[in-house]
């Protein structure tokens, strides 16, 4: 068998150390994600780290440092497809970005161990876990600070619900009222919400608004014939 001819004990033990280190370090990162019930938890994170380590270790064994560099480049880009699977958009909010970034970091940890840089992989693991845990109180404190609508740059959308028959007139009146209040509309789209309801979503050109002024405009829009509900939403642009 060719396996018997090519098997070398010390390189094999080196691979064992690399994969075992990737497993342990990936488990440390994944345990925090699993505890917080994220989309990609313990098993996914471990598999990403071990997989990256296995690919890089194989490249080192077959083609040396040059081969490892090429494989690492593919790992960096390839993990993006996996990360995209945990990102979900819910209305104006996007969830899963932090988990996707954690998977990307887990791949980096695995690549380090696969390249026999176990200490560097352990260091990266410390920073990843610190980013997901120690920074959480700071993030919560920042999120509790009231947003200054005048100073912040954000995307603002006015959302109006109407019926199909009143759609043309409501859309025209909606844009007219926003223009009169000096809130020019950059884009208007419609979204069907069943047979008898349609949402009109107007994206404002303005990057800053006066909350009370926009509330007053939305109240006037809600009084237009055919409108069943009107509101506005904002999301940061950076």
Automatic annotation (TrEMBL):
InterPro entries, sorted: MgtC-like_C, MgtC/SapB/SrpB/YhiD_fam, MgtC_SapB_SrpB_YhiD_N
Subcellular compartments: Cell inner membrane; Cell membrane
Residue span(s) of domain MgtC/SapB/SrpB/YhiD N-terminal: 19-139
A single Gene Ontology CC term: plasma membrane
Source taxon at top rank: Bacteria
Membrane topology listed for this record: Multi-pass membrane protein
Transmembrane segments: 12-30, 42-62, 68-88
Residue intervals of the MgtC-like C-terminal domain: 156-232
Alphabetically ordered keywords of this record: Cell inner membrane, Cell membrane, Membrane, Transmembrane, Transmembrane helix
Family statement: Belongs to the MgtC/SapB family.
Function: Virulence factor required for growth in low Mg(2+) medium and for intramacrophage survival. May be involved in regulating membrane potential by activating Na(+)/K(+)-ATPase.
Annotated protein name in UniProt: Protein MgtC
Lineage of origin: Bacteria, Pseudomonadati, Pseudomonadota, Alphaproteobacteria, Hyphomicrobiales
